Amino acid sequence: MAVGTKGENTRALIIRTALTLALERGLEALSLGLLAEAAGLSKSGLFAHFKSKEALQFAVLDEAVETFADRVVAPALTKPRGEPRLRALFLGKLAWFDSNGFGKGCIFSALQEEFDDRPGPLLDRLVEAELAWRGTLVKAAALAIREHHLAPDTDVEQLAFELEGIDASYRHHRKFLGDASASKRALRAYQRLIGEDARAPRRR
User: Fold this and answer.
1) DSSP readout, 124-165?
2) All domains of the chain, ordered by start, with CATH?
3) Model pLDDT, residue 4
4) What are phi and psi of 100, to 5 degrees?
5) Apex CA 144: angle with CA 141 and CA 150, to 5°?
6) Region 172-196 average pLDDT
7) What CA–CA distance (Å, rounded) separates 56 from 49?
8) What count of other Cβ atoms lies within 10 Å of the Cβ of residue 192?
9) How many other C-beta atoms are found inside a 10 Å radius of the C-beta of residue 146?
């Protein structure tokens, strides 16, 4: 990791601390006092980096998006095109729950629940991020068809929808119900979903 200036490092510390607190308590519940105490800074020190609560909220969301891209999307894109890449994206999203770097859970699902009935720029940015993830899944599925790993008539939008459904069920069973078998069940659901349409790679 590149070493920045003192101001850049302080800003990064504030954002990462806020991200951790947002996952635990929600983004709206963040106060300057709470964040200052957690980050070991003064309120005036925080205000020097973020002039408004909204600016901090956007910075937190952008940090989450960037971290997700680094930990989930980028590693999956190194996999061979087709089903291996689609599987890596799916498994990476499941792993994100425990290995996101700032806490246990999914910050995006938490923010969806918090802001889904609060129209505004922050919700728009969150929707944009979610649509980008959906697009990544759709593109990976389309490449899997092209590589003959999925049937040519596979509905890639429907496939992405159902993969997201498996992920949502996994999070519910993993976090709320404490189901130790959630990972195994999610993978089984993926295999059942993909298996019926999967095809062995053909030589060209």
Assistant:
1) HHHHHHHHHHHHHHHHHHHHHHHTTSB-TT--HHHHHHHHHH
2) 52-195 (1.10.357.10)
3) 61
4) -85, -10
5) 95
6) 92
7) 9
8) 10
9) 12
Structure-block tokens of residue 99: 């290995």
DSSP secondary structure letter of residue 198: B
Tokens describing residue 146: 């092209």
Q: Give pTM, 2 decimals.
A: 0.87
Contact between 81 and 136 under an 8 Å Cβ cutoff? The reply is no
Which parts of 50-146 fold into alpha helices (H)?
A: 53-68, 74-77, 83-96, 107-115, 121-146
**Which tokens sit at 157?**
């939008």
C-alpha torsion angle, residues 57, 58, 63, 68 (rounded to 10): 100
Average pLDDT, the chain: 88
End-to-end CA distance of the chain: 42
Question: What tokens were used for 48?
Answer: 């020097």
In this structure, what token pair is assigned to residue 23? 């996952």
- Give 178's contacts (C-beta < 8 A, 6+ positions apart): none
Between the CA atoms of 24, 25, 28 and 34, what dihedral angle is there, to the nearest 10 degrees?
-100
Q: How far is CA 116 from the centre of its chain?
A: 16
Mean pLDDT of 18-41: 84
